Amino acid sequence: MIRDEELLQQLVATVTRFVQQRLVPAEQAVAEQGRIPEDIIAEMKALGLFGMTIPEAYGGLGLTMEEEIHVAFAMGGTSPVFRSLIGTNNGIGSAAIVFDGSPAQKERYLPRFASGEWIGCFCLTEPDAGSDAASLTTTARREGEVYVLNGTKRYITNGPIADTYTVLARTEPDIKGARGISAFIVEKGTPGISLGPVDRKMGQAGSMTCDVIFTDCPVPAANLIGLPGQGFITAMKVLERGRLHIAGLSVGIAERLLQDALHYAMTRRQFGVPIAEHQLIQAMLADSKTEAYAARCMVLETARRRDAGEELATEAAACKLFATEMVGRVADRAVQIHGGAGYVADYAVERFYRDVRLLRLYEGTSQIQQLIIARNMIREAG
């Protein structure tokens, strides 16, 4: 659903210019230094990028799902590190509060997320619980007006710089599985929070992750999101939207990779002609264009249907599965088209090849998406 076509076009054009003029030139430096410069972060705040999906009543842009996807396409034109910084405020770091938070929670946290004053993060994965999220062992024990949290969360995006942690913890330890899991807002500086070292990753240098450890960490009962024992339901709503967003980002990255590969193929000469004239190069370009276009269409269609109020867990999983696998294939072809140049860091495709590998893992692995799709099909048929 696009509320105002002209305003959306202006927003996308503004984001596209920012990507091309400010973010693309900074990509390599961010990868080498492992951080985003403060002046770029300030510009992202000024553009409202930290609050794109947060309701306008709380200082955000209140984008619909379809509008968000168009912005994700544009953000895909540069290193995913930049999107990762704003992504938690727009998605998993704030969505639980947007969906199920109390009025007081929304008033306290959402304006700060929207402005970029605070960075949020989402603490679900644990050392022994990730894809099997229902098996998490972090506990939250009620003691009067507080819950006492104990447990370790792993691979937490923006964990090293977060001001708030949305934590999934088991409030009913005797209940196995998804029931008995609750969601909490934990603020930075609360006693009992400690951080592990920043993870060294294959790619996406500049997007920081780490372990977040809770040791007898007291959290006010007022910071419980929604009802006790309903945290897993909230988490699934958060992840459904997040999966569509990641699918849209994957399309944008694939289109950037295809643009770079096409430019290289038209300027690099072998056997007396640009390599773009060789049919096997053309086949890789054509396959990449076709797959990226197919992913773009399915993501937009699913976003429109979600805005219309349809339940689309299966379709969101299908989008995430197809688009993230697609961008991996496009990245591989882009490296192949570049030949030896694609294997050295002088060209962006080498970095993108490593960066996009993560997209098939977080917000639910490709294999988890396959299980969701198949199990939903079986349940609906039965």
Question: Could you describe the 3D structure shown?
Answer:
This protein has eleven helices and ten strands. It is of the alpha+beta class and 382 residues long. It has three domains: 5-115, Butyryl-Coa Dehydrogenase, subunit A, domain 1, CATH 1.10.540; 120-228, Butyryl-CoA Dehydrogenase, subunit A, domain 2 (Beta Barrel), CATH 2.40.110.10; 233-381, Butyryl-CoA Dehydrogenase, subunit A, domain 3, CATH 1.20.140. A four-stranded mixed sheet has the order 1-4-5-8. The longest helix is centred in the middle third of the chain and has 37 residues, at 231-267. It is globular, with a radius of gyration of 21 Å. The two termini are 32 Å apart. The model has no long low-confidence stretch (mean pLDDT 95).
Provide the CATH superfamily of the largest domain: Butyryl-CoA Dehydrogenase, subunit A, domain 3
CATH topology of the largest domain: Butyryl-CoA Dehydrogenase, subunit A, domain 3
H/E order of the elements?
A: HHHHHHEEEEEEEEHEEHHHH
Overall tally of domains = 3
**Outline:** globular
Measured between the Cα atoms of the first and last residue, the distance is 32 Å
Mean pLDDT: 95
> Which structural category do the helix and sheet elements fall into?
alpha+beta
Total number of strands: 10
